[in-house]
Structure formats: C-alpha cells, structure tokens
Amino acid sequence: MHSIIKEGNQTPLLVRNEGVLVKTDIVWESFYLLLKRNPLILLWLPLWLLRGKAFITQHVIGRATPDVAYLPYNRQLINYLQEQRRTGRQLVLVTSLPEGYARQIANHLGIFDSVLSRKDLIGRNKAEKAQGEAADSDKVNVVYACRDEEDLSLCENWPVLLVNPDPKKLGAIRNKYAIEQILISENGDWFDYVRVIRSHQWLKNLLVFVPLVTSHQISDSTLVLRAMIAFVAFSLCASGVYILNDLLDIPADRRHPTKCNRPFAKATVPIRTGTMLIPVLALSAFGFGLFLGTSFLYVLAGYLLATTVYSCWLKKIALIDVVTLAFLYTIRIFAGGAAVAIVPSFWLLSFSMFIFFSLALMKRSTDLQQADTHGRNILDGRGYTIDDAAFVQVCGISSGYLSVLVLALYINSENVRLLYTHPRVIWLLCPVLLYWISRVWLITGRGQMHDDPLLFAIDDRVSQGLAVLGMFILWLAT
After folding, report:
1. Measured between alpha carbons, how far is 399 from 384 in angstroms, rounded to an integer?
2. pLDDT confidence band for 462 (50 / 70 / 90)
3. Taking each helix axis from N to C terminus, what angle separates 461-477 and 429-445, rounded to the nearest 10 degrees?
4. DSSP type of residue 160
C-alpha cells in the first residue's frame, strides 16, 4: 500500500467505488446481464450462494459486466475530485471488484492515480491498530471518501469525506470522525418506487372488464366484484414482471433517450429492492387470484410465464416480440372471462389480436424513429434495424385496418343480433375506429407518438372524445 499511496503536499484521498462513486450495485447488474444472456444460470445460483459472496462476485463479474461508459456515476463527487486533482492531490480508487474491471472505471474517468483493493485497505487498517500510537510517525495519513457504516469502521484513524450519509446518523458520525467534507447529491424519493411498479400501466388491465361489458352483464355486482379482484391480481403480477423487465433492460435503457431516466437505470432505486419486490408482488397476485378459482389462476400463471419468457428471450427476436405483446394484451381479456365465467367470443379475440398487434408495431415504430434521431442504426436489446422502419409501419397500419374489417363482419353476425336491438347502428363505429387508427399512425409517422401508444390514447383528448362517441353509438344500438 505504501507503493500506491505517496506522501505529498496534500493528504491522499481514497474513494470508495461501490455505492459512492458508482451509485449502482455492479455485482447485481452483472448478475442480471448474465441472466438475460442465459436464464438457465438460475439453476446454478444455489451452488454459487454456498460458495460465498466473494465467489459470486468473481464468478459473475468474470462473465458479464456493465459498460463503464454508461454507469450511473455520482457527478457531484466527480466534480469535487476533478477540482482536487487540479490542485495536485493524489486520488486512489478503492474497490471490492476485480482489479481489471476497476481499472476500466478508473481509465474511463481519467482522474485516479491508482486502484486499491478494499482487502488491502482492511489489512492496512488492522496493521495500524496493531502498531499502536507509537507508529504514528510511520503512517501515511489519508482521507477516505465513503458512505455507510461498513466503510466508516475502517476510518477510525483517518478523516472522512462523507457522500450521501444517512441524515439520522450524521450527528453521531460528526462526534466520532474528523470530516473533511460532506457531499449530498440528488437521491431517489418515494415517487421513484411508484415509477418502479409502473402503476400508470395498470390502466391496461382494465381489459379484464371487457368480457363483462361486451356480454352486457356489467350491472351484476357480484361479477363486477370478481372482475375488480382480477384487475388487482393482474396489476400486481404485471408490476412484478415490469420490474424484472427493467432489471434485465438496464444497459439498453441507459442508452435510450427517455428510458435512461427509469429508476433502476439512474440507480435511484436499489437493484436489491427491485429483486425482493418481484416475488412479493407475484405471490400477492396469486393470493388475490385464489378468490377467483383455478381457471383464473391458470391464465394468470400463463401470463406470468409468457411475460417472463418475453423479457428473457422473445423481446430480442424481431416480429416475435410484437406478436407476443399483442398476445399479452389479449390474455387480459381471457383472464377477465375466466374471472366471471364468460367465454370471450371469436369476434372479440380476433379484433383484440389485430388492434393490439397494430399498437405493438406502433411502439416499435416509435422506438426506431428515436434510434434514428440519435444516430443509432440498431435498436438496443431488440432485433430491429433502422432499415425495418418502413416495413414495421406498413404492417402496423394494415393490422389496424384489419381490426376494422373484423368489427364490420361482427356487425353482420348472429352474435350481435342477440345482444343489440338495433345492430345496424353499430356500423357507425367503423368510420370512428378507421379515423382513430389512421390518426394515431399519422402522429406516429410524424414522430410525435408516446413510447406507449395505449397510454397516449388514454391521455389524448381526441381519443377520449372518440371513445365517448363510441359508447354513445353502442348505447343507441342497445
């Protein structure tokens, strides 16, 4: 350690990497990178856990590591370190990670003189304690930039630079340690946890009410209650899957112009917290599902399996990903039917597949436009290139128009005569739907579409007005 830390005009500054300089947990990120490449590693995880934390760190990081150029660094700390370096102060990066990867971080930032293993730092600290006060003249005084209790325990004889300390413990720390500086940077708040579960996406789960509405049984309070329980179960399950999807997509999200602000990508919510939330939400969903019977539980389990397979594999395969997305929308209608013991009609399922396939392609079209705007030729984490944009748009528009055709054929079927007194009035829905589909694709072509077309439709005033008009038409036909 004496060969790394030199005496000079200023006290050397040792900077903890994990959780201080880099706000994320790199070991957990590496694990999810590895999981995305090969989900079968879950079979080996129990054996790795038996070997201990050090083995997991070496084994996981040795196989997959996040790109150091896109890690969420503490910018306020980096600015402070740059100022210190300009004054000639020696900066040393302290890490528990493998030395090779730590040097990549140091080389990328270009402000550190050397890299030091945390194990070596612990060894030096123990040696100083063993030498006692008589050895004070032989010590190299340092300042340690750290945050948590584990690291502060190493600093009994050194001044510290506190980075985002716990405000409740700050008073006790001031009494025990000499503090050079306290740096408080922007941290996450409770709203980031709301964003993690994507509660705004729960609006999609209103599709579980569709079988109840289309069968004209919305006035049955018992069935409405069962549909509401199905809505809660699907929302909890979907949130768990969204968290898994975000954890697997952290590297791609950091390269995206808007998704880079997601809590896991910015490291405002710990990856460990997200990992714990996944089983909690999934088990809660199945707990609610127990009230609805085995048929609903089977559909919910199928949705969970399909979304997990999509997050791990299918989302990387062009066209398969959008077909799967359309299916995941439609399965919500299946779930609503299972909850209230109503079998969705052939017409409803056909219409759903075509309209949701169109919306899924609209989402990919928007992603491709954003990639093109930022000078990227491929879609990170997806199987598309910029050259596919025109094909995706044509397929999406065609699928949307096919949903209008299914609606027109349904109006002339026997089913509609059993449910509506004036079925011919429903023909007015065709131009309404035709206009809406044409309009949202026009907006998409202009590059003005939201990342999620369904959420755009919910917030869009014109779409809201057309929805009210559609309900009025159905009321006239009843």
Report:
1. 19
2. very high
3. 170
4. E
